[in-house]
Design brief:
The protein is mainly alpha-helical. It is built from ten helices and two strands. It folds into two domains: 82 residues, no CATH class; 87 residues, no CATH class. Helices cover 61% and strands 3% of the residues. Strands 1-2 form a two-stranded antiparallel sheet. This is Neurofibromin.
Length: 198
């Protein structure tokens, strides 16, 4: 919970910094940034980040769940925060962050923030990692502006492997959510459209 509160606070601080930025000029973007700042401060986003039950996110962000072991001199962390963030919440948060990024990118010449973010998300989406891969798939699906047949085929291969073992339901959900976003981006003559129509 403290990590989520920290990330939420960091997002709020970044948006606030962008609102006060004078160089480069974000005049056309100020309205989007101010609305986003208000939006991320709403109870809806506290719920999406999984921090709706905390009284103060600032206190929660800096509260440590780790206790120093006296006998063995090791650090033992309490694992009370076992609940996973729903993928649908991550999807909404990613869409909101993408809107902010796109608004700011209009004012910066040769800005490659989105291409860097897409490359990072893609690299984690196609690499096996039970903790990161489902989240990266959601982000990749949300922020991608183009997709190739090869990328969709690679996603389908990952889906087949996940369905064979049927152990990580979150990964299966993430792949389907990602494919739902990417399929409309395929070129119209792609043979994958017919294959995806079950």
């Amino acid at each position: 919970m403290s990590l989520r509160a920290s990330i939420h606070g960091l997002v709020i601080n970044i948006i606030h910094s962008l609102c006060t930025c004078t160089k480069p000029s974000f005049n056309d973007t100020q309205r989007v940034l101010r609305l986003s700042l208000d939006e991320f401060s709403l109870a809806k986003f506290y719920l999406l980040f999984g921090i709706s039950k905390v009284k103060s996110t600032a206190v929660t962000a800096f509260r440590s769940n780790c206790r120093h072991g006296l006998l063995d001199r090791s650090f033992a962390c309490a694992t009370s925060d076992q609940d996973r963030m729903p993928l649908s919440s991550l999807e909404i948060i990613t869409d909101a962050l993408l809107e902010i990024m796109e608004a700011c990118m209009k004012n910066i010449p040769n800005c490659d923030w989105l291409s860097q973010w897409t490359a990072l998300a893609k690299s984690f989406a196609f690499r096996y990692n039970p903790a990161l891969q489902p989240r990266a798939l959601i982000v990749f699906g949300c922020i991608s502006k183009t997709v190739t047949d090869q990328e969709v085929k690679q996603l389908l291969r990952i889906l087949v492997k996940a369905l064979e073992s049927f152990q990580d339901l979150q990964l299966i959900d993430a792949i389907i959510m990602c494919l739902t976003r990417l399929q409309p981006l395929l070129r119209p003559e792609s043979p994958i459209h017919r294959a995806l129509f079950w």
